[in-house]
Amino acid sequence: MPSDTRTRAAALLAEIRALRREVAAEADAACAPWRAAIQREEFLPSAHNLACYIALRHRDLRPLQRALAPFGLSSLGRLEGRVLTNLDAVAGALTALAGQGVAEHGFLDADAYAEGETRLAAATDALFGPPPPGRRGRLMVTMPANAASDPDFLPGCVRNGMDVARINCAHDDAAAWAEAIGAIRAAAAADGRHVAILMDVAGPKARIEEVQTRPDGDRVFEGDALLLVRNAFRPVTEWPVQIRIGIPEAVAAVADGAEVWFDDGKLGCTVEQRDGDDAVLRVRHVRPKGFRVRPEKGVNFPGTDIAVSALTDKDREDLAFAARHADMIGYSFVQSAADVRLLQTELARHRPDDWQRLGLVAKIETRQGVRRLPEIIVAAAGRQPFGVMIARGDLAVELGFERMAEMQEEMLWLCEAAQIPVIWATQVLEGYVKKGVPSRGEMTDAAMAARAECIMLNKGPFAARALHLLDGLMLRMGEHQFKKTTRLRALRSW
User: Fold this and answer.
1) Which residues lie below 8 Å from residue 399, measured CB to CB, with a gap of 6+?
2) 0.90 exceeded by pTM
3) Of 7, 167, 362, 412, which has fewest CB within 10 angstroms of its CB?
4) How far is Cα 44 from Cα 362, in angstroms, rounded to an integer?
5) Within the chain, which residues score under 70 in pLDDT?
6) CA distance 46 to 21
7) Which domains does the chain have, with CATH numbers?
8) Phi, psi at residue 365, to the nearest 5°?
9) Which run of H or of E encompasses 2?
């Protein structure tokens, strides 16, 4: 081997070894305060790998990647599930290339090298139950109100591959939920399959409660001024449109210049000024035909910290039922480890002996939730089976649509590093589910979603048909891709 090649290999080896030492030391320091929160011993190596990944990704590794590529070595681009192991493997190869004899850490066999994938698979099974034959990922469907009464809906969903049935506790009541769960269990048993039940507590979702408008209409256009009231409406002659929402604390929290969005981003405003307890909003983003302000539409406050409990009084009531009947709990608007502990305390109240057997799914849908995702993961997965839902509807509004694609990738990477499953949610095959015809963009999105451990479909009349399409798509994509790794099966298209 040419001496200059050995010299370059030796320099890279020194860089890799220094990088490993730094990453390991930073990870050890980060894990120390986490240890008290981790009661499930099987999560300890996953937590350490998560800390290693965070330490590694705080560095710009692009020059190192380019330097490694000519040697035919790992470019470090797929090490999420095995950070130190991957660095050790690269160091081992560079040791030989540099002519320095036996590697410091040596090489692992294939099973040991794939321990991260094994732990991710085990965590996925612990949350969702056993995998379906031939398919790694799971399929989830949101239940409509008539799920139990429609004789064809649930059998069709189970037959076409539904693995998880989601019940949204924002709708209906305990009697309706019990009827739906009975019908789901019966349909699954008839088909000889396991279908897990996810009950999703609504959380403090801000919605328009009441609108007061002048007689000339409730449609608003770009440049219009609105009044967001904390308590009482003002005289109708004073403002063309006044809005009261279900979380008055949010009105109190918004400052001048803050963003306020309505109905999943259809209407965007900024706070122009405070007016006593109320806030004057100026419309900045709306369709040319305007926007009709209606009750029940969602409201988002990107960048505003709102001092409100992650559990509402209704959530606490709903949890009394969900803790007894569901396999896992969906937790909306999780923003911190404290939020996780609050829910776990409530679950322990209802199931003191075995609440840690219940699965927990954290719906990440705010900027704060994204920023604090590592602490959320440790607090939850350290005590019970856990997964993360990328709730792309609210999250896109919170982050900005232009950042959504980038951020969903980063969340996938972080969760793989923590070896916990991800649910890809919101508008997957939405056109097919609602109208029976998918768009080209939806099919591409669904193919990208196959990298997650579970894909969620919203409710709609064609959900069973969409499941059939998605089941086949996931099987095919699984032959081509695992997480970030491309699988080079033989191609027959040419």
Assistant:
1) 302, 367, 370, 407
2) yes
3) 7
4) 20
5) 1, 102-107
6) 19
7) 3-113 (no CATH), 121-204+309-486 (3.20.20.60), 208-300 (2.40.33.10)
8) -145, 15
9) none
